[in-house]
Amino acid sequence: MALAGELGLKWGGTGATVRAVTACKGTDCRRGVFDTHRLALQLDRAFFGTTAPKKFKIGVYGCPNSLGKARGQDVGILPAPGEAGRFLLFVGGMMGRRPRLGDELGFSLPESALVEAVGRILAFYRRHGAEGQRLGDLLEEGGAPLLERLRAELKELA
Ligand code: SF4
């Protein structure tokens, strides 16, 4: 039996790490307006398996039908309605026993800025989050002032 490495598979889907990036069908779906798989692969290559205060989930969706799913991720990404080539980001969502809807940034970003934006969110989380603290819990604890600081770090990419 071939080893995972020989097949191009990677270990690391558990613990306090960035989990495998998930994506919907994107342009394989009649409603999808962009290639979710391409972006998910870019994000996976950049961040999968890297450490974080606690697990960190990224989801990419091809249309607003998955708004609920996008708001259930540490970072959820979907196309901005009526703004071709631009995207909405939601931060600090989680499911499980204490579900929380992710906060909207309040502005859209171009596709070219999305990998950098997720990198900045992760850096912010690593800088401010305590060991074992989800991003959503950090944002709850810090309240509006902390969310505004995160927004300011991302706004310059808009
Ligand atoms: S989120 Fe939209 S594009 Fe993605 S599978 Fe659902 S309906 Fe299709």
Bound molecules: iron/sulfur cluster
Amino-to-carboxy terminus distance: 48 Å
Low-confidence stretches: none
Q: Estimate what percentage of residues fall within beta strands.
A: 5-15%
What structural category do the secondary elements indicate? alpha/beta
The average pLDDT is 95
The helical percent reads: 25-40%
Query: SSE order, as H and E?
Result: EHEHEEEEHH
The coarse silhouette is globular
Quick one: how many beta strands? 6
By DSSP (H or I, 4+ residues per run), the number of helices equals: 4
Biggest pleated sheet: 6 strands, mixed
Gyration radius, in Å: 15 Å
Task: Give the key terms.
alpha/beta; 13% strand; binds iron/sulfur cluster; single chain; 158 residues; six-stranded mixed β-sheet; globular
Summarize it.
This protein is α/β, with parallel strands linked by helices and 158 residues long.
Walk me through what this model shows:
This protein has 158 residues and is of the alpha/beta class. Helices cover 33% and strands 13% of the residues. It is built from 4 helices and 6 strands; from the N terminus they run E-H-E-H-E-E-E-E-H-H. Strands 1, 2, 3, 4, 5 and 6 form a 6-stranded mixed β-sheet that branches. Helix 1 links the parallel strand 1 and strand 2. Helix 1 (36-47) runs parallel beside helix 3. The chain is globular, with a radius of gyration of 15 Å. The mean pLDDT is 95. Bound molecules: iron/sulfur cluster (SF4). Iron/sulfur cluster is lined by residues 24-26, 29, 31-32, 61-63, 65-66.
